[in-house]
Specification:
The protein has 225 residues and is mostly helical. It has 9 helices and no strands. The longest helix is centred in the last third of the chain and has 33 residues.
Length: 225
């Protein structure tokens, strides 16, 4: 029926935008890794904070469904965010081997696809899991900030498993939540804006799953061999 067709079209757009954003990040990181200027720039703490700041502004502005906002502006925000994330990842090809990166990426893709499929098809309400995951994420962020000063590889490694569980729950819940948002608001808002907003959320879920898997596969310290 029309409802299912509209929902399928929405998911196709959302996953398409998300996949394009991941591709932008991957290409930016790959080519950035060959540029000493980019590596030097991203090694500057001030530059890192500036990039994070811009990303926070973009994420906040895209989290609201403003009916007057052009989908083109939303798309630009998503891809600028993805490009900045790619800059943050520009040193990844120096620290980790291509095999480790590929293994983590493929594993993250499979894990994300399964969890997102479950979230989009299950009849069970996942809001409880989502609330618990978000609460756990706050505690996780606090400990991670503390570990920035401690620089403990063991904490990073152990908490990578915890972070993986948190974002596994968030991936399923976010997918279900976005499905419900479309069914409730699809006729009231610009569907492209909703798809772009959802793409950013799922992009963040996927990127975090990838990072945690990479830490787990390499013992959190990187493997140059």
């Amino acid at each position: 029926n029309n409802s299912n067709a509209g929902l399928n079209s929405f998911f196709t757009k959302m996953y398409g935008y998300m996949s394009a954003a991941v591709a932008v990040s991957a290409l930016t990181a790959f080519f950035g890794s060959f540029s000493p200027t980019v590596i030097r720039f991203m090694s500057n703490p001030i530059a890192l904070f500036a990039v994070f700041g811009v990303q926070l502004v973009l994420a906040y502005s895209m989290s609201s469904l403003k009916s007057q906002r052009s989908p083109l502006v939303s798309a630009l925000g998503l891809f600028v965010f993805a490009g900045l994330e790619g800059l943050l990842f520009s040193g990844i090809f120096i620290v980790y081997t291509a095999q480790n990166i590929t293994s983590a990426f493929v594993s993250a893709f499979v894990m994300f696809a399964v969890l997102s499929f479950m979230g989009s098809t299950t009849k069970k309400d996942l809001s409880g899991i989502g609330r618990q995951a978000r609460a756990a994420l706050i505690a996780f962020i606090i400990v991670s900030l503390i570990n920035l000063f401690l620089q403990s590889p063991m904490i990073t490694y152990v908490f990578s498993f915890i972070g993986l569980v948190i974002f596994a729950g968030l991936t399923a819940w976010d997918t279900q939540r976005l499905r419900q948002m479309y069914l409730q608001m699809g006729s009231q808002v610009n569907v492209n804006n909703l798809a772009l907003m959802g793409a950013l959320q799922l992009y963040l879920d996927f990127i975090n799953i990838f990072i945690f898997l990479l830490n787990i596969f390499t013992g959190a310290g990187g493997n140059r061999d």
